[in-house]
Amino acid sequence: MTLPTDLVVLDASSILNLYATGRMRDILTVTPSGAGIVEYVLQKEALFVRGTDPSQGEIKEPVVLDPLINEGLLRVFRLESSAETALFVDLASQMDDGEAMTAAIAICRSCSLATDDQKALRILSVRAPHLDVTTTLGLIRRWAEATSTPRVILEALEESMRTKASYRFSERDPHYGWWLSAVKKRL
Asked: CATH no. for residue 126?
């Protein structure tokens, strides 16, 4: 099954980082052909972000994606062909299973891929240079530009990702320069 190339399959890191923003629905709404998640990532990896409870302090906050799936903003995929399975097995020897399965589906179905995993990005740049790969920051940029999102909201997003998902934007991210200019920070 070939899907639109502008459909983006999200790995666990992207799911957790987007979920931590509290604006995942809004961000996925501007993704032209939608987004997908591999069933394995949904069931085994993208399970919790950090939260707080007044009586307990820091807690594991469950990642609840069912509403996004039910709305059709997030499609669930599983390995369906022998080519996908073979590529998954091959990639899994070099990266985590979730990233390998996500990449195998994106490659075999000619979709885009979103990951913040530096090892996966490095491997895929060599193994699948034709693959359209983006990052959480790239997805945020698309949303922010499409909606003229104010700086104060972008700063709140960054803080939420840092607090809930331990994520910091990387200087290696191709969208980092945009981020600095969007929030008026200096290098």
From this structure: 3.40.50.1010
DSSP-based helix, strand, coil % in the chain, nearest 5? 50, 15, 35
Give this prediction's pTM.
0.92
* CA-only gyration radius of the chain, Å: 16
Give 64-76 pLDDT, tens digit per residue.
999 999 999 999 9
Closest CA to 143 of 31, 33, 22, 1: 31
Residue 133, domain extent: 1-187
Classify each residue of 121-138 as buried b or exposed e, where b means 16 or more C-beta atoms within 10 Å of its C-beta: bebbeebbeebebbbbbb
User: What CA–CA distance (Å, rounded) separates 99 from 94?
Assistant: 10
* Cα angle: 164, vertex 170, 175; to 5 degrees: 105
39-48 pLDDT per residue, tens? 999 999 999 9
For residue 183, give the amino acid letter.
Answer: V
Specify the number of domains making up the chain. 1
